[in-house]
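Renewal narrative, Specific Aim 1. Our central claim is that a sequence can be written position by position from structural information alone. The example that follows is taken directly from our test logs and has not been curated for this report. It begins with the structure tokens describing the chain, in the order in which they were read.
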């Protein structure tokens, strides 16, 4: 092997070794840029787990593979009033405390049955945990909206019909 080729290959390997750790380090920032919300990477992982609990993966893709948590974050950031955004953030923080109190571990590390029980208890005690319930309702509605508007649903599950629809000459007047 020529000396120049060996030196070039060595420099490429050294450069890759220097860049590789930067690819795997946690930045603490969410995946998408948000203008009004201040979420961390842990908050994003929590939202991902919550959305996956609401729309689990079966024979069709779930919330995690459709990245519905990003849709929820962007919709709350862009389309909600400041008061609702603050309620969302407060509910997210209180939800984390609520989960640690009930299960003594984070929502991400909880098992699927534990997650489902937690969500049922939130729906039953909506007056007691107003901020948590509001956060849960916003997340649930935006997750469902994102799923129904996803490319998978619109191409595979919804049958498209042209605007006027079909003609039915036998329809009673």
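The sequence written for that structure reads:
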């Amino acid at each position: 092997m020529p000396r120049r080729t060996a030196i070039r290959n060595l420099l490429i390997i050294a450069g890759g070794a220097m860049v590789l750790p930067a690819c795997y380090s946690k930045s603490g920032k969410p995946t998408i840029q948000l203008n009004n919300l201040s979420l961390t990477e842990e908050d994003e992982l929590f939202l991902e787990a919550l959305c996956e609990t609401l729309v689990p993966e079966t024979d069709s893709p779930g919330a995690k593979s459709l990245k519905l948590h990003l849709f929820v974050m962007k919709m709350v950031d862009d389309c909600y009033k400041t008061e609702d955004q603050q309620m969302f953030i407060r509910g997210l923080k209180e939800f984390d405390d609520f989960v640690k109190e009930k299960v003594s571990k984070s929502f991400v590390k909880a098992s699927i049955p534990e997650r489902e029980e937690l969500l049922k208890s939130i729906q039953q005690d909506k007056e007691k945990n107003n901020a948590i319930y509001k956060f849960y309702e916003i997340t649930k509605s935006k997750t469902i909206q994102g799923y129904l508007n996803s490319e998978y649903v619109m191409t595979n599950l919804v049958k498209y019909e042209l605007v006027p629809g079909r003609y039915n000459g036998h329809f009673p007047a």
